[in-house]
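Reopening this one. Same input as before:
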Amino acid sequence: MGELKNRTYLNTIVPIWQAKKVRKLSKDTRIPISRLAEEAYNDLLKKYGIELELEEELTD
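Same output, byte for byte:
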């Protein structure tokens, strides 16, 4: 498996119904689940007032 430069693995467990709907959404929109999850994590961080950082800030 290739090396990830600006990403890491984050495993989670979700209800089966939710996983099925996310897989269908991914298939219907042709957007990878990892991109959908990234959008959801960004929305969650914004909800709790956590400022999103640019990639350049993370590598400093």
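So the earlier flakiness isn't reproducible anymore. For the record, The CA atoms of residues 25 and 55 lie 27 Å apart.
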